[in-house]
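User: ok so my PI wants both of these folded by tonight, can you help

Assistant: No problem, let's get them done. Here's the first:
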Amino acid sequence: MSRNVKYITIIFLAELAIFFIASAIPVSNPKLVQSFSTERSQIVQQPYVIEALSIFSHNLVIALTEFIPGFGIAMLGFSIFSTGVVLSAISLSQGIPGLFSALSLMTLPHSWLELPSYAIAAGSGIYILIDKNWKRFVLMIGFVTLELFLAAFTEAAEIVVESINIGYSYLFWIPAALFIYALYKAFTWINSYADSISSASSTPLQGIYSSQTAYSNPGYSAPEFQRQPTQVGVGFVKAGKAQLTIYSPRPIQISSIQILAQGVLPSSVYPQLINPGYNYITVELTGSESLSYGANYVIVFTFSDGTTISANVIYQGN
């Protein structure tokens, strides 16, 4: 698990904890309940699309403030605590424990689209202070915008059908599950892409290996006159992905890849365009579960100019 994913996971768990704690605190505030009920009735009386866009715009403003480096994490804490307090007040007015309402809310699909987006926003605001990767930051803003858009339309659909039968709201787990899967793949791609950018300017692994030349001295960089791309260090295969670093003194395109292992095929490689310097390469593999733990395997890269290199990777399990 990469460092930014760890931050986001920790923040998400803290977000849930604050939400549950706040909702469990008994709050008696008739004015707050009346204000919320009036605002909600104005939203739900609108046509479906307008209702969804109203929810989306409101949530997006909150998320964008949570992207602010440093300040965003405080905004998240305040926002989710306030949500828990409002839920507690509404629940108490209906004679229902606030914590029960919070747990019930977490069974609805829109919650698992909306709440993680706030953790991603706050986590990205913190991580930008560490890795200074603005491309990751901007892509995460787009990702959270998409996630909240899907969450809003899911929530609006739940509101429409709950007046008929509250159980119908759970039918939207079907599209929501597809949304969550697609968002997971997009999130993984963004992090892989951003990591490849970061690794191009980071210190390489010790030793350089290629099919042409090998440098065994730690920290030794390939000379600029060497026109052949080379592997830096030894890569690894884990969870169906081969990850390694390639140094190239010039831009060059990967035209094909092959792994010398029976029953294992590469399905994709990213990035395909190798930039000058150090490039963090990810190769998606099918059938990698047949590999032997701790064994060394060779991936052959063929480039657009016809040159090839043999890269070494070690299988570390799934």
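One down. Here's the second:
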Amino acid sequence: MSAEETDLVAAVTDIGGATVDEATKRMMTFLLDHALSRQYNFLGRNGKREFKALKLYEVIYGGLKKNAMTSQITRKDAEKAVSKWLIGARDRGGNRQARQATPQQGL
């Protein structure tokens, strides 16, 4: 890991969180804006980019491992938490309200 990546791991570790999901949410919100988060899913399916292949995923995982509250995390736990956060990207920024306000087609 480069010095920049190590510094970034230290920065996201300081963000904290009491659970894996909370810490992941706080770290991902710190690192990605709404527009960027909508371009990714964990495995890069359905025309989106793959988040798992990014060094940023290793930074998140490293931050979760160094967080005292989440240090027992496995890679599978981290994958599930990051994937869950990315799935919710389309609802952030008021998009859920806008989507619910639009009449559903074909019902």
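The chain has one domain: 3-93. The radius of gyration is 15 Å. Good luck tonight!
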